[in-house]
Amino acid sequence: MAVDRLPAVTGAARSGVFPALLDAVAAAAHRLDGGDRVLALGYPWGGRPADTAPVLGCFLNTLVHPAPPGPPRPLDALGAEWWDDLDHADTPYDEVVRAARSAGASWSGALDGLLTFEDLHRRPPLVLGGTAGREVHLAGRPLAAPIAVSASHGEDLLVRLAWDRERYADAAAEAAFATLLATLRHHLGAGA
Fold it and tell me: CA-to-CA distance for 141 and 58, rounded, in angstroms?
């Protein structure tokens, strides 16, 4: 796994972190893929409105973001595409795959990359029945895509890249991670 910490993004610019990450993961995936096709990036999206009762449960879905090849795109365009993705957050993943196939696309439903993002400033406490929960991070689990990026934004922006070692050599994945970090810095400013 490749890991790096960038400075936290503050103020209004925080809203651009997730679209910047989408573009950075796309750049890394394209570097590894080497082709000029549109890649399918998946990311989980879910939660509950902040003012709801403290009950167990939330919604969670995997959204698919099309990532065309090319240089970094403007952050406002990426943000608009992300909002378009969110307009379909209630469509189950299987339905997205079924719709693509019925429209004649040859897409199998496989993802070219995964992105998970956690804004630690907006994180609800892990409490059930008055008992605080704890998280356990498991290493070495199989990946559901050739690459997976995890980002946590709190006091800093922690970015991790894991890759399928049977598919990509470590040196190629580390070069893709460097591309990911350069794209993030491009979008988030010189301090990132």
Answer: 24
